[in-house]
Amino acid sequence: MKIKKVEVLVSAGQYVIGDPCYAVPDKDWLPLLETCNYFESPIGYVKDGLQKFAVLAFGTKWGDGCYAGSDGREYGVDAGLLGLVPVELVEDLPRHDGIVVTFDKETLCVDDGSGKLKFGHIVIDTDPVEEEEDEEEY
């Protein structure tokens, strides 16, 4: 078994953080997936007129669900992905209020293969250790 580490340096800017399937417009979703082989490569692209937007996404350890971030937020996942979508690409930004992150400089994002996904200062653990409840036999 091999742990694959992926590091991506993203440009300064504002991004919606979460499952990109929620933020990328429906008309752009399939073309985006095709540009990155369904996020086998962590960066996909959406063309909007003359502009080209890069979307970053890492696969979660256990697919869909809800994962806790180090920022105290819960991140819902329906496409098995967590990542960053430039705010300029998002059609209904107010719906994503509170999950916009601003990077003042180039920022390192990392999937270290353990299930912990790092987007700058935010770490989202997609392989949390569940505390086992002690079961007593009667």
Helix content: 10-25%
Distance between the termini: 41 Å
- Biggest sheet descriptor: 5 strands, antiparallel
Class inferred from helices and paired strands: mainly beta
Helical element count? Answer: 2
Overall number of domains? 1
Q: Which sequence of strands runs across the widest sheet?
A: 3-4-7-2-8
Radius of gyration: 16 Å
DSSP strand tally: 11
| Beta-strand content estimate | 35-45%
Broad shape: globular
Poorly predicted runs of 5 or more residues: none
Helix and strand succession?
A: EEHHEEEEEEEEE
Tell me, rounded to a whole number, the average pLDDT.
90
What can you tell me about this protein's structure?
This protein is mostly beta strands and 138 residues long. The protein has one domain (6-125). The protein contains 2 helices and 11 strands, in the order ββααβββββββββ. The chain has helices at residues 20-23, 26-35, and strands at 6-10, 13-18, 43-48, 51-59, 65-68, 74-77, 81-86, 100-103, 107-111, 116-119, 122-125. The strands form 3 sheets. A 5-stranded antiparallel β-sheet has the order 3-4-7-2-8. A 4-stranded antiparallel β-sheet has the order 1-9-10-11, with no helix packed on it. A two-stranded antiparallel ribbon has the order 5-6. The longest helix is centred in the first third of the chain and has 10 residues, at 26-35. The model has no long low-confidence stretch (mean pLDDT 90).
Topology:
Blueprint: E1 6-10, E2 13-18, H1 20-23, H2 26-35, E3 43-48, E4 51-59, E5 65-68, E6 74-77, E7 81-86, E8 100-103, E9 107-111, E10 116-119, E11 122-125
Antiparallel strand pairs: 1-9, 2-7, 2-8, 3-4, 4-7, 5-6, 9-10, 10-11
